[in-house]
Amino acid sequence: MFGASFVTLLLLRGTSAALQAVSHTRRSVEPFGFFNNNTIYQTSGNQSITYPRFAEAQDGTIFATASLSGPSPSYFPIFESKDGGASWKWISNITDTQNGWGLSAQPALAELTEPLGGFEAGTILASGNSWSKNGTRIDLYASTDQARSWKFVSHVAEGGPPNTTNGATPIWEPYLLTYNHSLVCYYSDQRDPKHGQKLAHQVSKDLINWDPPVDDVAYDEYIARPGMTVVAWIPPISKWILVHEFPRGNSSSYGVNYPVYYRLADSPLDFRLSEGLPIVINNNTAPNASPYVVWSPSGGTPNGTIVVSDADRGVVYTNRFGGATDAWEEHATPAGATYSRAIHILKDHPDHLMIFGGETFDDFGKGLLTPFTATVVNLTEILAN
Ligand SMILES: *[C@@H]1O[C@H](CO)[C@@H](O)[C@H](O)[C@H]1NC(C)=O
Ligand SMILES: *[C@@H]1O[C@H](CO)[C@@H](O)[C@H](O)[C@H]1NC(C)=O
Ligand SMILES: *[C@@H]1O[C@H](CO)[C@@H](O)[C@H](O)[C@H]1NC(C)=O
Ligand SMILES: *[C@@H]1O[C@H](CO)[C@@H](O)[C@H](O)[C@H]1NC(C)=O
Ligand SMILES: *[C@@H]1O[C@H](CO)[C@@H](O)[C@H](O)[C@H]1NC(C)=O
Ligand SMILES: *[C@@H]1O[C@H](CO)[C@@H](O)[C@H](O)[C@H]1NC(C)=O
Ligand SMILES: *[C@@H]1O[C@H](CO)[C@@H](O)[C@H](O)[C@H]1NC(C)=O
Ligand SMILES: *[C@@H]1O[C@H](CO)[C@@H](O)[C@H](O)[C@H]1NC(C)=O
Ligand SMILES: *[C@@H]1O[C@H](CO)[C@@H](O)[C@H](O)[C@H]1NC(C)=O
Ligand SMILES: *[C@@H]1O[C@H](CO)[C@@H](O)[C@H](O)[C@H]1NC(C)=O
Protein backbone atom coordinates (compact mmCIF):
# COMPACT_ATOMS: atom_id res chain seq x y z
CA MET A 1 0.00 0.00 0.00
CA PHE A 2 1.64 3.16 -1.11
CA GLY A 3 -0.83 5.90 -1.94
CA ALA A 4 -0.13 8.90 -4.16
CA SER A 5 -0.88 11.29 -1.28
CA PHE A 6 1.68 9.49 0.87
CA VAL A 7 4.33 9.97 -1.81
CA THR A 8 3.41 13.65 -2.13
CA LEU A 9 3.68 14.13 1.61
CA LEU A 10 7.08 12.50 1.66
CA LEU A 11 8.19 14.67 -1.23
CA LEU A 12 6.85 17.91 0.25
CA ARG A 13 7.85 17.45 3.84
CA GLY A 14 11.49 18.28 3.40
CA THR A 15 13.18 20.48 6.00
CA SER A 16 15.47 19.63 8.82
CA ALA A 17 14.03 19.63 12.28
CA ALA A 18 15.59 19.54 15.69
CA LEU A 19 16.01 15.89 16.51
CA GLN A 20 15.52 14.68 20.01
CA ALA A 21 17.83 12.46 21.96
CA VAL A 22 17.22 8.74 22.08
CA SER A 23 15.83 7.21 25.20
CA HIS A 24 18.74 5.06 26.32
CA THR A 25 17.20 3.15 29.16
CA ARG A 26 13.86 2.74 30.85
CA ARG A 27 13.87 1.33 34.31
CA SER A 28 10.76 -0.81 33.87
CA VAL A 29 12.24 -2.52 30.84
CA GLU A 30 14.56 -5.47 31.50
CA PRO A 31 17.29 -6.64 29.10
CA PHE A 32 15.95 -9.50 26.96
CA GLY A 33 12.60 -9.08 28.71
CA PHE A 34 9.07 -8.50 27.50
CA PHE A 35 7.83 -4.92 27.25
CA ASN A 36 5.41 -2.66 25.40
CA ASN A 37 6.13 0.37 23.21
CA ASN A 38 9.71 0.89 24.40
CA THR A 39 10.92 4.10 22.75
CA ILE A 40 13.73 3.78 20.23
CA TYR A 41 13.41 7.36 19.00
CA GLN A 42 10.94 10.15 19.76
CA THR A 43 9.99 12.13 16.65
CA SER A 44 9.59 15.90 16.87
CA GLY A 45 8.57 18.81 14.67
CA ASN A 46 7.12 17.48 11.43
CA GLN A 47 8.84 14.10 11.62
CA SER A 48 7.07 10.81 11.16
CA ILE A 49 8.39 7.26 11.54
CA THR A 50 6.97 4.51 9.34
CA TYR A 51 8.28 1.32 7.69
CA PRO A 52 10.64 0.09 10.44
CA ARG A 53 13.36 -2.37 9.42
CA PHE A 54 16.14 -4.21 11.27
CA ALA A 55 19.00 -6.68 11.12
CA GLU A 56 20.18 -8.92 13.96
CA ALA A 57 23.93 -9.56 13.79
CA GLN A 58 25.47 -12.93 14.68
CA ASP A 59 26.37 -11.60 18.15
CA GLY A 60 22.74 -10.66 18.87
CA THR A 61 23.14 -6.91 18.30
CA ILE A 62 20.00 -5.50 16.71
CA PHE A 63 20.28 -2.61 14.27
CA ALA A 64 17.02 -0.82 13.55
CA THR A 65 16.02 1.90 11.13
CA ALA A 66 12.84 3.26 9.51
CA SER A 67 11.52 5.71 6.97
CA LEU A 68 11.98 9.07 8.69
CA SER A 69 10.03 11.81 6.94
CA GLY A 70 10.75 15.45 7.77
CA PRO A 71 14.51 16.00 7.38
CA SER A 72 15.77 17.20 4.01
CA PRO A 73 17.75 15.66 2.51
CA SER A 74 16.24 12.55 4.03
CA TYR A 75 18.45 9.84 5.55
CA PHE A 76 18.07 6.55 7.41
CA PRO A 77 18.85 6.87 11.15
CA ILE A 78 20.45 3.72 12.61
CA PHE A 79 19.77 2.63 16.18
CA GLU A 80 21.50 -0.20 18.05
CA SER A 81 20.37 -2.47 20.86
CA LYS A 82 22.61 -5.04 22.53
CA ASP A 83 20.04 -6.19 25.09
CA GLY A 84 17.07 -7.51 23.14
CA GLY A 85 15.51 -4.09 22.50
CA ALA A 86 15.49 -2.86 26.11
CA SER A 87 17.89 0.02 25.45
CA TRP A 88 18.72 1.77 22.20
CA LYS A 89 21.49 4.06 21.03
CA TRP A 90 21.40 6.24 17.89
CA ILE A 91 24.73 5.29 16.31
CA SER A 92 24.74 6.64 12.74
CA ASN A 93 22.83 7.94 9.75
CA ILE A 94 22.98 6.49 6.26
CA THR A 95 23.04 9.40 3.84
CA ASP A 96 22.70 9.44 0.05
CA THR A 97 26.17 10.14 -1.37
CA GLN A 98 25.24 9.50 -5.01
CA ASN A 99 22.02 11.07 -6.26
CA GLY A 100 21.51 14.26 -4.30
CA TRP A 101 17.97 12.97 -3.69
CA GLY A 102 18.30 11.72 -0.12
CA LEU A 103 17.42 8.25 1.13
CA SER A 104 13.73 8.95 0.89
CA ALA A 105 11.99 5.88 2.28
CA GLN A 106 11.69 2.08 2.40
CA PRO A 107 14.96 0.99 4.03
CA ALA A 108 16.28 -2.58 4.18
CA LEU A 109 19.05 -4.00 6.39
CA ALA A 110 20.92 -7.31 6.37
CA GLU A 111 24.11 -8.79 7.78
CA LEU A 112 26.61 -10.62 5.56
CA THR A 113 27.04 -14.03 7.16
CA GLU A 114 29.96 -14.95 4.90
CA PRO A 115 32.52 -12.94 2.93
CA LEU A 116 31.18 -11.55 -0.35
CA GLY A 117 32.65 -9.22 -2.94
CA GLY A 118 35.61 -8.21 -0.81
CA PHE A 119 33.41 -7.58 2.25
CA GLU A 120 33.96 -9.67 5.38
CA ALA A 121 31.30 -11.62 7.23
CA GLY A 122 29.70 -9.25 9.73
CA THR A 123 29.42 -6.40 7.21
CA ILE A 124 26.05 -4.68 7.60
CA LEU A 125 24.29 -3.98 4.31
CA ALA A 126 21.62 -1.37 3.74
CA SER A 127 19.37 -0.47 0.88
CA GLY A 128 16.40 1.82 0.37
CA ASN A 129 14.66 4.02 -2.15
CA SER A 130 16.36 7.28 -3.13
CA TRP A 131 13.97 9.44 -5.12
CA SER A 132 13.28 12.85 -6.56
CA LYS A 133 11.03 14.18 -9.31
CA ASN A 134 13.67 12.71 -11.64
CA GLY A 135 13.51 9.08 -10.61
CA THR A 136 13.62 6.25 -8.07
CA ARG A 137 16.86 4.43 -7.31
CA ILE A 138 17.49 1.38 -5.17
CA ASP A 139 21.07 1.68 -3.96
CA LEU A 140 23.28 -0.55 -1.80
CA TYR A 141 25.41 0.75 1.09
CA ALA A 142 27.70 -1.18 3.44
CA SER A 143 29.23 -0.72 6.88
CA THR A 144 32.36 -2.60 7.92
CA ASP A 145 32.37 -1.10 11.44
CA GLN A 146 29.14 -2.38 13.03
CA ALA A 147 26.92 0.25 11.38
CA ARG A 148 29.01 3.21 12.65
CA SER A 149 29.88 4.46 9.16
CA TRP A 150 28.56 3.72 5.70
CA LYS A 151 29.81 3.72 2.16
CA PHE A 152 28.06 3.44 -1.15
CA VAL A 153 28.55 0.08 -2.89
CA SER A 154 26.35 -0.07 -6.01
CA HIS A 155 23.18 1.02 -7.78
CA VAL A 156 20.87 -2.01 -7.94
CA ALA A 157 18.06 -0.66 -10.10
CA GLU A 158 16.52 2.57 -11.32
CA GLY A 159 12.99 3.56 -12.30
CA GLY A 160 10.91 6.60 -13.14
CA PRO A 161 9.77 9.26 -10.66
CA PRO A 162 7.74 8.17 -7.63
CA ASN A 163 4.16 7.79 -8.88
CA THR A 164 1.81 4.97 -7.91
CA THR A 165 -0.45 5.34 -10.97
CA ASN A 166 -0.40 2.34 -13.27
CA GLY A 167 1.61 3.24 -16.36
CA ALA A 168 4.22 5.21 -14.43
CA THR A 169 7.59 3.43 -14.11
CA PRO A 170 9.03 3.73 -10.59
CA ILE A 171 10.49 0.98 -8.42
CA TRP A 172 9.88 0.59 -4.69
CA GLU A 173 10.51 -1.29 -1.45
CA PRO A 174 13.75 -3.29 -1.59
CA TYR A 175 14.23 -6.35 0.63
CA LEU A 176 17.70 -7.90 1.06
CA LEU A 177 18.47 -11.60 1.52
CA THR A 178 21.84 -13.35 1.58
CA TYR A 179 21.53 -16.71 -0.17
CA ASN A 180 23.86 -19.19 -1.90
CA HIS A 181 26.99 -17.00 -1.71
CA SER A 182 25.13 -14.08 -3.19
CA LEU A 183 22.92 -11.13 -2.24
CA VAL A 184 19.33 -11.05 -3.45
CA CYS A 185 17.52 -7.71 -3.71
CA TYR A 186 13.74 -8.05 -4.07
CA TYR A 187 11.63 -5.03 -5.00
CA SER A 188 8.31 -3.80 -6.42
CA ASP A 189 8.57 -2.89 -10.10
CA GLN A 190 6.26 -0.72 -12.25
CA ARG A 191 8.59 -0.65 -15.28
CA ASP A 192 7.12 -3.62 -17.14
CA PRO A 193 4.35 -2.32 -19.46
CA LYS A 194 2.51 -5.65 -19.08
CA HIS A 195 1.86 -5.11 -15.37
CA GLY A 196 0.62 -2.17 -13.29
CA GLN A 197 3.17 -3.45 -10.78
CA LYS A 198 4.96 -6.75 -10.24
CA LEU A 199 7.52 -8.18 -7.82
CA ALA A 200 11.01 -9.00 -9.06
CA HIS A 201 14.50 -9.66 -7.71
CA GLN A 202 18.10 -9.28 -8.82
CA VAL A 203 21.12 -11.28 -7.64
CA SER A 204 24.72 -10.18 -7.13
CA LYS A 205 27.74 -12.37 -6.38
CA ASP A 206 30.05 -9.42 -5.67
CA LEU A 207 27.65 -6.69 -4.44
CA ILE A 208 28.67 -4.58 -7.46
CA ASN A 209 27.32 -6.35 -10.54
CA TRP A 210 23.64 -7.28 -10.58
CA ASP A 211 22.04 -9.95 -12.77
CA PRO A 212 18.97 -8.91 -14.77
CA PRO A 213 15.61 -8.80 -12.92
CA VAL A 214 13.67 -12.06 -12.51
CA ASP A 215 9.94 -12.03 -11.75
CA ASP A 216 8.70 -13.31 -8.39
CA VAL A 217 5.01 -12.39 -8.58
CA ALA A 218 3.46 -11.06 -11.81
CA TYR A 219 -0.21 -11.47 -12.71
CA ASP A 220 -1.76 -11.36 -16.18
CA GLU A 221 -4.40 -8.97 -14.87
CA TYR A 222 -2.81 -5.57 -15.64
CA ILE A 223 -4.33 -3.63 -12.72
CA ALA A 224 -3.05 -6.15 -10.15
CA ARG A 225 -0.35 -4.51 -8.05
CA PRO A 226 1.41 -7.18 -5.97
CA GLY A 227 3.73 -5.18 -3.71
CA MET A 228 6.11 -5.10 -0.74
CA THR A 229 8.03 -8.39 -0.73
CA VAL A 230 9.31 -9.87 2.52
CA VAL A 231 10.93 -13.34 2.56
CA ALA A 232 11.71 -15.82 5.35
CA TRP A 233 13.08 -19.38 5.69
CA ILE A 234 10.95 -22.09 7.32
CA PRO A 235 13.38 -24.86 8.40
CA PRO A 236 11.02 -27.75 9.29
CA ILE A 237 9.38 -27.79 5.87
CA SER A 238 12.54 -26.68 3.98
CA LYS A 239 10.65 -23.92 2.21
CA TRP A 240 11.00 -20.21 1.69
CA ILE A 241 7.97 -18.00 2.18
CA LEU A 242 7.31 -14.71 0.36
CA VAL A 243 4.50 -12.45 1.60
CA HIS A 244 3.12 -9.51 -0.34
CA GLU A 245 0.08 -7.26 -0.53
CA PHE A 246 -2.19 -7.81 -3.49
CA PRO A 247 -4.47 -4.90 -4.45
CA ARG A 248 -6.43 -5.26 -7.67
CA GLY A 249 -8.11 -2.00 -8.55
CA ASN A 250 -11.06 -1.45 -6.24
CA SER A 251 -11.70 -5.10 -5.58
CA SER A 252 -12.25 -6.11 -2.00
CA SER A 253 -11.60 -9.48 -0.40
CA TYR A 254 -12.89 -10.36 3.07
CA GLY A 255 -13.39 -6.65 3.65
CA VAL A 256 -9.87 -5.52 2.71
CA ASN A 257 -8.51 -3.85 -0.44
CA TYR A 258 -4.88 -4.90 0.01
CA PRO A 259 -5.22 -8.58 0.92
CA VAL A 260 -2.03 -10.38 1.95
CA TYR A 261 -0.87 -13.33 -0.15
CA TYR A 262 2.00 -15.78 0.30
CA ARG A 263 3.97 -18.23 -1.78
CA LEU A 264 6.06 -21.19 -0.60
CA ALA A 265 9.07 -22.30 -2.68
CA ASP A 266 12.13 -24.56 -2.43
CA SER A 267 14.38 -21.72 -3.60
CA PRO A 268 13.94 -18.02 -2.80
CA LEU A 269 14.79 -17.35 -6.46
CA ASP A 270 11.86 -19.40 -7.79
CA PHE A 271 8.71 -17.88 -6.29
CA ARG A 272 7.43 -17.22 -9.82
CA LEU A 273 6.78 -20.97 -10.12
CA SER A 274 4.59 -21.18 -6.99
CA GLU A 275 0.91 -20.60 -6.48
CA GLY A 276 -0.21 -17.41 -4.73
CA LEU A 277 -2.26 -18.19 -1.58
CA PRO A 278 -4.39 -15.73 0.41
CA ILE A 279 -4.17 -15.39 4.18
CA VAL A 280 -7.73 -15.73 5.47
CA ILE A 281 -8.70 -16.51 9.05
CA ASN A 282 -11.77 -18.68 9.71
CA ASN A 283 -13.14 -17.83 6.28
CA ASN A 284 -13.91 -14.47 7.78
CA THR A 285 -11.14 -11.91 8.24
CA ALA A 286 -7.96 -11.08 6.36
CA PRO A 287 -4.85 -8.99 6.98
CA ASN A 288 -4.52 -5.77 4.98
CA ALA A 289 -1.40 -4.32 3.34
CA SER A 290 2.38 -4.11 3.81
CA PRO A 291 2.92 -7.55 5.37
CA TYR A 292 6.01 -8.85 7.16
CA VAL A 293 6.82 -12.50 7.89
CA VAL A 294 9.08 -14.36 10.31
CA TRP A 295 9.35 -17.93 11.54
CA SER A 296 9.90 -19.20 15.11
CA PRO A 297 10.59 -22.75 16.35
CA SER A 298 8.24 -21.89 19.27
CA GLY A 299 4.57 -22.70 19.17
CA GLY A 300 4.63 -26.44 18.64
CA THR A 301 6.44 -29.26 16.89
CA PRO A 302 7.20 -30.08 14.22
CA ASN A 303 6.43 -26.91 12.27
CA GLY A 304 6.96 -24.07 14.75
CA THR A 305 5.09 -20.86 13.93
CA ILE A 306 4.96 -18.63 10.87
CA VAL A 307 4.08 -15.12 12.10
CA VAL A 308 2.71 -12.44 9.76
CA SER A 309 2.07 -8.77 10.49
CA ASP A 310 -0.02 -6.30 8.46
CA ALA A 311 -0.44 -2.52 8.26
CA ASP A 312 -3.78 -2.04 9.93
CA ARG A 313 -4.02 -3.93 13.19
CA GLY A 314 -2.19 -4.70 16.40
CA VAL A 315 -2.77 -8.44 16.04
CA VAL A 316 -0.46 -10.96 14.36
CA TYR A 317 -1.52 -13.79 12.06
CA THR A 318 0.04 -17.17 12.76
CA ASN A 319 0.29 -20.58 11.16
CA ARG A 320 1.58 -23.62 13.08
CA PHE A 321 0.86 -26.13 10.32
CA GLY A 322 3.60 -25.51 7.79
CA GLY A 323 1.65 -22.79 5.98
CA ALA A 324 -1.52 -24.83 5.38
CA THR A 325 -4.06 -22.38 3.91
CA ASP A 326 -6.83 -23.37 6.34
CA ALA A 327 -4.66 -23.09 9.45
CA TRP A 328 -4.20 -19.32 9.88
CA GLU A 329 -5.05 -17.86 13.27
CA GLU A 330 -5.22 -14.34 14.63
CA HIS A 331 -3.76 -13.38 18.01
CA ALA A 332 -3.89 -10.12 19.96
CA THR A 333 -0.70 -8.26 20.92
CA PRO A 334 -0.24 -5.09 23.00
CA ALA A 335 1.43 -3.34 20.03
CA GLY A 336 -0.26 -0.76 17.82
CA ALA A 337 -0.73 -0.86 14.06
CA THR A 338 2.11 0.61 11.98
CA TYR A 339 2.57 1.17 8.26
CA SER A 340 4.80 -1.70 7.05
CA ARG A 341 5.27 -3.03 10.59
CA ALA A 342 8.38 -5.21 10.80
CA ILE A 343 8.45 -8.09 13.28
CA HIS A 344 11.42 -10.20 14.42
CA ILE A 345 12.14 -13.39 16.36
CA LEU A 346 15.27 -12.91 18.49
CA LYS A 347 17.82 -15.47 17.27
CA ASP A 348 18.71 -16.81 20.72
CA HIS A 349 15.25 -16.30 22.27
CA PRO A 350 12.75 -17.98 19.93
CA ASP A 351 9.72 -17.08 22.06
CA HIS A 352 10.64 -13.36 21.92
CA LEU A 353 8.57 -11.75 19.16
CA MET A 354 9.73 -8.16 18.61
CA ILE A 355 7.17 -5.83 17.01
CA PHE A 356 8.45 -2.47 15.79
CA GLY A 357 6.09 0.49 16.09
CA GLY A 358 5.61 3.83 14.34
CA GLU A 359 2.90 5.75 12.51
CA THR A 360 -0.03 4.15 10.70
CA PHE A 361 -0.70 4.78 7.02
CA ASP A 362 -3.93 6.65 7.79
CA ASP A 363 -2.38 8.86 10.49
CA PHE A 364 0.74 9.70 8.51
CA GLY A 365 1.08 13.47 8.15
CA LYS A 366 -1.26 14.30 11.04
CA GLY A 367 1.59 15.33 13.32
CA LEU A 368 0.80 12.78 16.01
CA LEU A 369 4.51 12.34 16.80
CA THR A 370 4.07 8.62 17.35
CA PRO A 371 7.52 7.42 18.48
CA PHE A 372 9.63 4.68 16.93
CA THR A 373 9.18 1.82 19.40
CA ALA A 374 9.95 -1.82 20.09
CA THR A 375 7.49 -4.15 21.79
CA VAL A 376 8.59 -7.66 22.76
CA VAL A 377 5.92 -10.26 23.51
CA ASN A 378 6.12 -13.89 24.55
CA LEU A 379 5.01 -15.72 21.40
CA THR A 380 4.04 -18.83 23.38
CA GLU A 381 1.75 -16.73 25.54
CA ILE A 382 0.06 -14.81 22.75
CA LEU A 383 -0.57 -18.08 20.89
CA ALA A 384 -2.50 -19.30 23.93
CA ASN A 385 -4.92 -16.34 23.79
C1 LIG B 1 8.99 21.01 9.04
O1 LIG B 1 9.45 21.57 10.29
C2 LIG B 1 10.29 22.68 10.15
C3 LIG B 1 10.70 23.16 11.53
O2 LIG B 1 11.11 22.09 12.33
C4 LIG B 1 9.54 23.81 9.43
O3 LIG B 1 10.45 24.84 9.18
C5 LIG B 1 8.96 23.31 8.12
O4 LIG B 1 8.15 24.29 7.55
C6 LIG B 1 8.17 22.05 8.29
N1 LIG B 1 7.79 21.54 6.97
C7 LIG B 1 6.57 21.15 6.66
C8 LIG B 1 6.33 20.67 5.26
O5 LIG B 1 5.65 21.17 7.46
C1 LIG C 1 21.94 12.09 12.27
O1 LIG C 1 21.61 13.26 11.53
C2 LIG C 1 20.90 14.22 12.31
C3 LIG C 1 20.48 15.35 11.37
O2 LIG C 1 21.58 15.88 10.74
C4 LIG C 1 21.78 14.70 13.44
O3 LIG C 1 21.07 15.61 14.25
C5 LIG C 1 22.18 13.49 14.29
O4 LIG C 1 23.07 13.90 15.29
C6 LIG C 1 22.84 12.43 13.44
N1 LIG C 1 23.05 11.27 14.28
C7 LIG C 1 24.16 10.56 14.24
C8 LIG C 1 24.28 9.45 15.21
O5 LIG C 1 25.05 10.78 13.44
C1 LIG D 1 16.49 16.61 -12.52
O1 LIG D 1 17.02 16.59 -13.83
C2 LIG D 1 17.24 17.89 -14.36
C3 LIG D 1 17.64 17.73 -15.81
O2 LIG D 1 18.73 16.86 -15.92
C4 LIG D 1 18.32 18.59 -13.55
O3 LIG D 1 18.53 19.90 -14.03
C5 LIG D 1 17.85 18.66 -12.08
O4 LIG D 1 18.87 19.19 -11.29
C6 LIG D 1 17.49 17.28 -11.57
N1 LIG D 1 16.92 17.37 -10.25
C7 LIG D 1 17.25 16.54 -9.27
C8 LIG D 1 16.58 16.77 -7.95
O5 LIG D 1 18.04 15.63 -9.43
C1 LIG E 1 1.85 9.56 -12.90
O1 LIG E 1 1.79 8.57 -13.89
C2 LIG E 1 0.64 8.66 -14.71
C3 LIG E 1 0.66 7.44 -15.63
O2 LIG E 1 1.82 7.41 -16.38
C4 LIG E 1 0.66 9.97 -15.47
O3 LIG E 1 -0.50 10.07 -16.25
C5 LIG E 1 0.72 11.12 -14.47
O4 LIG E 1 0.87 12.34 -15.17
C6 LIG E 1 1.88 10.94 -13.52
N1 LIG E 1 1.83 11.93 -12.48
C7 LIG E 1 2.75 12.86 -12.33
C8 LIG E 1 2.56 13.79 -11.19
O5 LIG E 1 3.71 12.94 -13.08
C1 LIG F 1 24.16 -21.55 -6.22
O1 LIG F 1 24.75 -20.81 -7.27
C2 LIG F 1 25.47 -21.62 -8.20
C3 LIG F 1 26.08 -20.73 -9.26
O2 LIG F 1 26.85 -19.77 -8.69
C4 LIG F 1 24.56 -22.62 -8.84
O3 LIG F 1 25.31 -23.47 -9.68
C5 LIG F 1 23.84 -23.43 -7.79
O4 LIG F 1 22.88 -24.23 -8.41
C6 LIG F 1 23.15 -22.52 -6.81
N1 LIG F 1 22.57 -23.32 -5.75
C7 LIG F 1 21.35 -23.08 -5.29
C8 LIG F 1 20.88 -23.96 -4.20
O5 LIG F 1 20.61 -22.21 -5.74
C1 LIG G 1 -11.84 2.63 -8.59
O1 LIG G 1 -13.05 3.33 -8.39
C2 LIG G 1 -12.99 4.69 -8.77
C3 LIG G 1 -14.27 5.37 -8.35
O2 LIG G 1 -15.36 4.53 -8.58
C4 LIG G 1 -12.72 4.79 -10.26
O3 LIG G 1 -12.62 6.13 -10.65
C5 LIG G 1 -11.40 4.09 -10.57
O4 LIG G 1 -11.17 4.07 -11.94
C6 LIG G 1 -11.42 2.67 -10.05
N1 LIG G 1 -10.05 2.12 -10.19
C7 LIG G 1 -9.82 0.95 -10.77
C8 LIG G 1 -8.39 0.57 -10.90
O5 LIG G 1 -10.70 0.20 -11.12
C1 LIG H 1 -17.08 -18.92 3.66
O1 LIG H 1 -17.99 -17.87 3.92
C2 LIG H 1 -18.88 -17.65 2.83
C3 LIG H 1 -19.68 -16.39 3.13
O2 LIG H 1 -20.09 -16.38 4.46
C4 LIG H 1 -19.76 -18.88 2.63
O3 LIG H 1 -20.61 -18.66 1.55
C5 LIG H 1 -18.84 -20.06 2.34
O4 LIG H 1 -19.62 -21.25 2.25
C6 LIG H 1 -17.82 -20.23 3.42
N1 LIG H 1 -16.86 -21.25 3.01
C7 LIG H 1 -16.43 -22.21 3.83
C8 LIG H 1 -15.42 -23.16 3.29
O5 LIG H 1 -16.81 -22.29 4.98
C1 LIG I 1 3.94 -29.61 9.02
O1 LIG I 1 4.02 -29.04 7.73
C2 LIG I 1 4.01 -30.01 6.69
C3 LIG I 1 4.25 -29.27 5.39
O2 LIG I 1 3.24 -28.31 5.19
C4 LIG I 1 2.68 -30.75 6.70
O3 LIG I 1 2.70 -31.74 5.69
C5 LIG I 1 2.48 -31.39 8.04
O4 LIG I 1 1.19 -31.95 8.09
C6 LIG I 1 2.61 -30.35 9.13
N1 LIG I 1 2.51 -30.99 10.42
C7 LIG I 1 1.69 -30.54 11.34
C8 LIG I 1 1.61 -31.32 12.62
O5 LIG I 1 1.05 -29.52 11.18
C1 LIG J 1 1.42 1.09 21.99
O1 LIG J 1 1.33 2.22 21.14
C2 LIG J 1 0.27 2.16 20.20
C3 LIG J 1 0.34 3.42 19.38
O2 LIG J 1 1.36 3.28 18.46
C4 LIG J 1 -1.06 2.05 20.93
O3 LIG J 1 -2.07 1.88 19.96
C5 LIG J 1 -1.04 0.86 21.85
O4 LIG J 1 -2.21 0.82 22.58
C6 LIG J 1 0.14 0.96 22.80
N1 LIG J 1 0.18 -0.23 23.63
C7 LIG J 1 0.25 -0.16 24.93
C8 LIG J 1 0.26 -1.45 25.68
O5 LIG J 1 0.30 0.90 25.54
C1 LIG K 1 6.82 -17.63 27.65
O1 LIG K 1 5.56 -18.12 28.05
C2 LIG K 1 5.54 -19.52 28.29
C3 LIG K 1 4.09 -19.89 28.56
O2 LIG K 1 3.59 -19.11 29.58
C4 LIG K 1 6.47 -19.83 29.43
O3 LIG K 1 6.50 -21.23 29.64
C5 LIG K 1 7.86 -19.36 29.10
O4 LIG K 1 8.72 -19.53 30.20
C6 LIG K 1 7.83 -17.87 28.75
N1 LIG K 1 9.17 -17.45 28.28
C7 LIG K 1 9.93 -16.65 28.97
C8 LIG K 1 11.27 -16.36 28.41
O5 LIG K 1 9.55 -16.12 30.01
From TrEMBL:
Signal peptide segment: 1-17
Keyword flag Manganese: no
Keywords, in A-Z order: Signal
InterPro entries hit by this protein: Sialidase_sf (IPR036278)
PANTHER family: BNR/ASP-BOX REPEAT DOMAIN PROTEIN (AFU_ORTHOLOGUE AFUA_7G06430)-RELATED (PTHR38792), BNR_ASP-BOX REPEAT PROTEIN (PTHR38792:SF1)
Name listed for the protein in its UniProt record: Sialidase
Organism of provenance: Podospora didyma
